[in-house]
Amino acid sequence: MICRLILDEPRCGAFNMAADEWLLRNAPSVGCPTLRFYFWSSPTLSLGYFQKYADRAQHSESVPCAAVRRASGGGAILHHHELTYSYITPIDDRVRSSASDIYDIFHDTLIETLATYNIHARKADDGDAQQADNNAFLCFTRRSIGDVVMENAKIAGSAQRRHANALVQHGSVLLSRSEFAPQLPGIGDITSVQIPLEQLIADWSQLLSERQNLQFDAQPFTDSECDLIQQIVETRFGTDEWQKRR
Fold first, then answer.
1. Which of 3.30.70.20, 3.40.50.720, 3.30.930.10, 3.40.50.620 is the CATH number of 2-243?
2. Is 139 a catalytic residue?
3. How do residues 174-200 score in pLDDT, each as one tens digit?
4. Annotated catalytic residue: which of 3, 32, 139, 226?
């Protein structure tokens, strides 16, 4: 199956959220999946859809950062030294019956990719989930079954959201500690192994293509697509009404 691959440039939080939203809305008409790897132009706190904006005060270190509200739930994420991805696909009978498999495939292949560099990671189990404070403000201090952990630290997590006949799964891989979330170690803080980011993306993508039988077609956003995404920024993700709706 052909899958569009977008290796995106660093962008602001509102644009990143709007880009995933635009890809999700258009997935049924496009008819094929899209895998997007992306980055953040400045350290940004993304709030889960149901979190209160005022709760930012619970985490003083990230208060100086820009903020954006996600359309997906969960805890807040400090996007700084990380790799962020989204996978958007139309929902057909195959996807409808295996949506949870997509979650596992991304985390399993990430663990396998890290293992090639002698980095040991595993998926969190019920014991991890029970020991964590799953009402904590920050997503990476929570634990869900299937999160990727190293030692006692969560280094990757993902969430899914459906819209009409399409699904988006997006997630973050914490590469190293940020001064705006110093309580969260990344891969580079737990191990001395340094993986070039481009190599991590290439190796992980290769395993994903094999596991899902995907043939990647690299296509960056066009200028016209960016204009359409910017409209979503201006009407939703970049507005105070959206940011402070809770």
1. 3.30.930.10
2. yes
3. 999 999 999 999 999 999 888 999 999
4. 139
